[in-house]
Amino acid sequence: MASSVDIYISSQFFSTGTTKEEEEEEEPEEMTLEEINKTLTLTYMYDNAPFTLLPRQYLPDKTIHHRPPVFFYGISATLDKLEEYARKQGVYSQDKPLKRGYLRAVAEHLNTTCQLPKGTIAFQTIADDHCDTLVYTCLSNYKLRFPEDKVQQFETVIETIERELGGIAKWYLGESSDFRDDYKVTLK
């Protein structure tokens, strides 16, 4: 029986949140190289992220030297919401004048709540019109290796973060200084 957040790569999508059986039933439509390349422009990514399912073309592929921008899987929240959460949890106060100290405090609190090693859950800035939005995450399109025996733990972690921060996990375009207009694939 597949877990409800079984992590695998199907023919078109990297999936979290659906079972293999559900994914097989849906069978995504095949895309032409031209259609795929339209989705590999920065404009398209900005306009369509976050994704519930990460399209396969956003996975790096060393064999064809394809290095798309980083996408993070996690729950987004504004700085104000995170500061309020930190105060409600008692993990931050004005007496701790650390710059953005509540962001680290929230990450440490989530690691403790999820019983994870320090630094497992971290906040990431995302490419968003709202510069005060961050994502708490433990997975990216460049770090997909997740041991099968840890799938249940991953599911619990995501559910806990969703409950704690009041959001739904999705794939967010990460902020990067290496942005270019497009990441088109050319097959020879």
Automatic annotation (TrEMBL):
This is Uncharacterized protein. It comes from Marasmius oreades (fairy-ring Marasmius).
